[in-house]
């Protein structure tokens, strides 16, 4: 597997998909709901996933595809090469704002993240990484994350996690909100991972993410020294929905041990 | 007072100030704290406010200035023409992210908002309005806000307001978080007002804002049919710090009556 050849191929494919998404704003977008009323999907999410699948099947036969919209393979293990794709991460933003969403893609070989891409479609900003080669924001190499502290940190998290929920003790989350410098919520896990990688926020936490939400971003975050795990501190399991945190390495352990109390 | 002449003057001054802010990223930024450790101010906030004051004093003598950094006039009433200025709204974002902050300016005559400006400095996006003339995003006229419902709304609010606080019953805020489609938090009141005006979010609520945070944005929001008030439903008082909400008119009253319980 020639990672650099794949990297060039993927960048070109992502830009083409981004162009199709931007063009879609001129037409009507069909919106449906999935698991619940606020879990949105559009015809564009589906078309973009299908575009990737057609291309991958033609140009990389033998590779498998794990996509949010379910048109890819039925993935039960991480053997071989798997493309983990969210064609539009932040569909609610796509529908309501026509911005602040991303194409998220991670390429894994036997469970190891080799390539990661987060494409902010409207701003034409591509965050990307090849394992061991550092992370980039467009053509600019991202610096390694610098040491910080809880009290100087900005944390990406949804306000929902400060309310009683089935995943963690919310009182501990409230302590975290009080102890950090500030919280932000942008509505796209992929973009929030890109912001962790570029140091705009110092951590991102979520109680419930799917493999395609975090597959690309995790590769990028780790290339700048960031840490990723579930709330137990275990390496993320890319076969199931789980809790997730990505953070600056100087606060990752402290957030887990002092502020996150899984139920 | 020729509003259209002032409008041209202000746009030019804001763009000049924005250029100075963007240029400041090349040098060192001095950061201090104000009322508390997370209330940040930099030398750039101060320099930009002073730039405005020099120009206004020269070109609009007789006008008064109410600025966040306190270099303007001691404002105890709303008589005459007052420029309400936040030179950098979202200073924490300015410091941590070098983006997602804005110059916020409202021009009030005898307490009536005549002109409003929110300038997203890094994206070079100017939201602006002349009272009675509609609101604009750069050169594009913003459409009137369309009817929506609580369950389809995205609300801008800080996660802090879902936690016990001295301003409102947080259980009611939690009900709001559960009933809406989603929440977002961008860390700049001015930008969140610009997002209400452009329909990217449907409401913005905060327990504690100052006149210069909301003066420009309120003019813009009202020009697209949006409603602004404090949590009692009263017109905002531009002499004091207060609670604040700006919202799509179809949900403003309902949020106030069903979800906001001031203490």
Automatic annotation (TrEMBL), chains A, B:
<feature type="binding site">
    <location>
        <position position="88"/>
    </location>
    <ligand>
        <name>Mg(2+)</name>
    </ligand>
</feature>
<feature type="binding site">
    <location>
        <position position="68"/>
    </location>
    <ligand>
        <name>Mg(2+)</name>
    </ligand>
</feature>
<feature type="binding site">
    <location>
        <position position="213"/>
    </location>
    <ligand>
        <name>Mg(2+)</name>
    </ligand>
</feature>
<dbReference type="GO" id="GO:0046872">
    <property type="term" value="F:metal ion binding"/>
</dbReference>
<dbReference type="InterPro" id="IPR020583">
    <property type="entry name" value="Inositol_monoP_metal-BS"/>
</dbReference>
<keyword id="KW-0378">Hydrolase</keyword>
<feature type="binding site">
    <location>
        <position position="89"/>
    </location>
    <ligand>
        <name>Mg(2+)</name>
    </ligand>
</feature>
<dbReference type="Pfam" id="PF00459">
    <property type="entry name" value="Inositol_P"/>
</dbReference>
<dbReference type="GO" id="GO:0008934">
    <property type="term" value="F:inositol monophosphate 1-phosphatase activity"/>
</dbReference>
<dbReference type="InterPro" id="IPR000760">
    <property type="entry name" value="Inositol_monophosphatase-like"/>
</dbReference>
<protein>
    <recommendedName>
        <fullName>inositol-phosphate phosphatase</fullName>
        <ecNumber>3.1.3.25</ecNumber>
    </recommendedName>
</protein>
<dbReference type="GO" id="GO:0046854">
    <property type="term" value="P:phosphatidylinositol phosphate biosynthetic process"/>
</dbReference>
<keyword id="KW-0460">Magnesium</keyword>
<keyword id="KW-0479">Metal-binding</keyword>
<feature type="binding site">
    <location>
        <position position="86"/>
    </location>
    <ligand>
        <name>Mg(2+)</name>
    </ligand>
</feature>
<dbReference type="GO" id="GO:0006020">
    <property type="term" value="P:inositol metabolic process"/>
</dbReference>
<dbReference type="InterPro" id="IPR020550">
    <property type="entry name" value="Inositol_monophosphatase_CS"/>
</dbReference>
<dbReference type="GO" id="GO:0007165">
    <property type="term" value="P:signal transduction"/>
</dbReference>
């Amino acid at each position: 597997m020639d990672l650099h050849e794949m990297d060039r191929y993927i960048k070109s494919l992502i830009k083409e998909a981004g162009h199709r998404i931007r063009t879609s704003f001129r037409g009507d977008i069909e919106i449906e709901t999935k698991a619940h009323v606020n879990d949105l999907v559009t015809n564009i999410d589906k078309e973009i996933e299908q575009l990737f699948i057609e291309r991958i099947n033609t140009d990389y036969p033998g590779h498998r595809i794990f996509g949010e919209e379910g048109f890819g393979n039925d993935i039960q293990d991480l053997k071989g090469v798997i493309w983990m794709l969210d064609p539009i991460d932040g569909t609610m933003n796509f529908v309501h704002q026509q911005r602040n969403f991303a194409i998220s893609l991670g390429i894994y070989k036997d469970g190891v993240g080799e390539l990661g891409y987060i494409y902010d479609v409207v701003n034409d900003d591509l965050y990307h990484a090849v394992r061991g080669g550092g992370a980039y924001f467009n053509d600019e190499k991202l610096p390694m994350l610098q040491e910080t502290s809880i009290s100087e940190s900005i944390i990406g998290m949804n306000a929902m996690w400060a309310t009683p929920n089935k995943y963690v003790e919310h009182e501990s989350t409230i302590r975290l909100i009080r102890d950090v410098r500030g919280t932000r919520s942008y509505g796209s896990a992929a973009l929030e991972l890109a912001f962790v990688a570029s140091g705009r926020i110092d951590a991102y936490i979520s109680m419930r993410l799917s493999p395609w939400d975090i597959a690309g971003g995790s590769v990028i975050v780790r290339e700048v020294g960031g840490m990723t795990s579930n709330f137990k501190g275990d390496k993320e399991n890319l076969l199931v929905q789980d809790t997730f945190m990505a953070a600056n390495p100087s606060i990752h352990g402290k957030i887990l041990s002092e502020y996150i109390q899984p139920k």
